[in-house]
Amino acid sequence: MRRWFWMVLAIVAVVAIAYQLAKQREPVEVTVAQVERRDIVSDFAASGVFKGNSTSVYSQVAGIAAAVHAREGQTVQAGAKLVTIDAKDIEAERARVVQAAAAIERRLALAVHALEAAESEHTARLAASRRALAVAIAERTRVMAGPQSQLIQQARDRLEQATAARDLSKIELARAETLYNQQAAPRSLVDAALSRLRADEAEVRASLSAIELLESQPTKEEVETANARVRAAEAEVEIAQALGRGLAVRRAEVSVARAELGAANAAVRQVEARFQDYSIAAPVAGVVAKLDLRRGEAVSPAHPVAVLSTEDEKYLEIEVSDQDIAKIAVGDAVNVTSGAQPGRRYQGRIYHLATEAELKPDAAVRVRILRARVRVDDPEGFFRIGMEADVEGEAATVKAALTVPSDSVVVGEEGACVWVVVAEKVERRPVKLGFVTFAHTEVLEGLQEGEKIVVRGKEGLETGQRVKVAGSQP
């Protein structure tokens, strides 16, 4: 078994040696270029969107987005609805407290109605009992007083007047009947005269009765009856007053119901206020700069739902690719153009750079960008929040930069490198890059002027591999 092992190992070694010898015997054809110094014009291009002072909009509650009413780039007014959060739970709670408040309100209405009815009954009963007591006392006073000469004389005077009126009514009745019989007057004249006569006769009888009553002396029974009536009237007054004291219970019931209704209405207002939190509105007018939310996604008070930009301090935010980051600085002048005004160029200046790069959102491949802000000279106010624009950097020249063709640079996970040709063999050389243009790239460290580097044919190269220079590239 060990013998076979050593045989296989020997075969592998022979094949490896043969492969290396074959590589040395068959050099790879490559195109090279010389490391040289040249002036590099470092320009850049970027695009961006006009924004303003930003206002972050937060949700007061956590939940699930039931509807999204705005989109990025849309102009909204203050109070415009941005997002609606699912409020099934709070709606159920609102229905419950509203129903409870309505029940208490109905109970209060019944209590108030019962109190008002009881108060009305008490007032009427107390007034009636007091009137009855006054009448009973007056009657007892009259009974106890006995005959009164002055009242008797007044009653006799009324009798005399009533008698005279009755006699006159008899005469008028007789005359009316005569005229009626002669068909000189209607029957109604007779009826009217007869009615007056009967009324006068009734007055005469009443006057006679009054005189008889005033002239009579009260009996023991009359006095006892009068006293009993007074006592009964006094008892009725006490009962009415006692009923009044019993109204305190009903008043307490009304007070309790009113307090409960106040608490229930406060609960309704509290739920209504919470319900408003489930509708997120724009606090100010502006343009929706960011609203990365879809229906069904979670909403949290810890993260802004949207970002609004206002016209207070308008600026152009551009996305600078990682290859161009080294080419820009605060204070650099740029040209700004827009597809809405072909041929028109606006002057701008970079006034802010982000502190760190970030991954470009929604990019198909992983690309890192640096956000920069440009203040644009726009006296006519053409650019509005949300409009897009293109930016071209003013040309800047790096004098006598050590350069290589951009196609010769290989960028991998370990950084940038080039393949250097030394004595017809190649070696991998790590380099530190400076400005990068389409044609040439500045090398800050790793190469010397005059060295030759591989431009084409570098695929699959290994350190120490022999190469054959098939041509040179300037």
Concise summary:
With 474 residues, this protein is of the alpha+beta class. It contains five helices and 23 strands.
Structural notes for this entry:
The model has no long low-confidence stretch (mean pLDDT 83). With 474 residues, the chain is α+β, with helices and mostly antiparallel strands. Strands 1, 17, 18, 19, 22 and 23 form a 6-stranded mixed sheet that branches. The chain has a 6-stranded antiparallel β-barrel with strand order 3-10-14-12-11-15. It is rod-shaped. It is built from 5 helices and 23 strands. It has 3 domains: 90 residues, conserved putative lor/sdh protein from methanococcus maripaludis s2 fold; 151 residues, Efflux pump adaptor protein, beta barrel domain (Elongation Factor Tu (Ef-tu), domain 3); 147 residues, no CATH class. Strand 11 and strand 12 form a beta hairpin.
List its traits.
single chain, 474 residues, alpha+beta, conserved putative lor/sdh protein from methanococcus maripaludis s2 fold, Elongation Factor Tu (Ef-tu), domain 3, 6-stranded antiparallel beta barrel, 5 helices, rod-shaped
